[in-house]
Design goal:
Elements lengths: L2 E4 H5 L8 H19 L3 E5 L13 E5 L6 H9 L9 E3 L3 H9 L3 E3 L1 H11 L14 H25 L1
Parallel strand pairs: 1-2, 1-4, 2-3, 4-5
């Protein structure tokens, strides 16, 4: 099943170091490793122009948009003439793209979920995303919330008997 990947959309869920070109390169290397394990075809779409070359092979292709055209538009153009896309997997969190792909019966994976799949395939059990690691302030807020609920429960229990 070929994967159509909204590259810049997927890039936003990763906390990779470097400028946009370095981050794209790191992301493509992660996808390339996954592609070798999965043995599926991958087409990664990025908004262009790009300043350097990126790794490609017969199963990993890059599609770079030109000025005035977004990568999202290129994905839509690829899906548009197809009547049934049930053999495609779209990786994106973009609502409009997901809607169009859903109409065409493509399988959908949002970017954060695909990140988890890539991490699992790489043997990493921890997702290095701030969303999964609460700050000390968030922990205190949750502790206070549960403490308050526990106290409210005790008071209610005392009143009722």
């Amino acid at each position: 099943m070929p994967y159509l990947i909204d590259g810049d959309n997927l890039l936003w869920v990763w906390e990779l170091e470097g400028d946009i070109e370095e981050r794209r390169s790191k992301l493509l290397n992660i996808i390339l490793k996954f592609q070798k394990k999965k043995k599926s075809k991958f087409v990664v779409f990025f908004d262009g122009p790009l300043k350097k070359e990126f790794p490609q092979n017969e199963n990993l292709k890059l599609v770079i948009s030109e000025r005035g055209v977004s990568a999202d538009e290129l994905i839509k153009e690829m899906l548009d003439p197809l009547h049934d896309c049930k053999n495609f997997i779209l990786v994106s969190s973009d609502r409009e793209l997901r809607y169009q792909a859903k109409i065409k019966r493509a399988r959908l994976i949002n970017s954060l979920e695909f990140k988890k799949i890539l991490l699992k395939a790489a043997g990493k059990t921890k997702c290095e995303d701030k969303e999964f690691e609460p700050s000390s302030l968030e922990i205190k807020l949750w502790e206070n919330l549960f403490k308050k609920k526990k106290n409210d429960y005790k008071k209610k229990k005392q009143r009722n008997g």
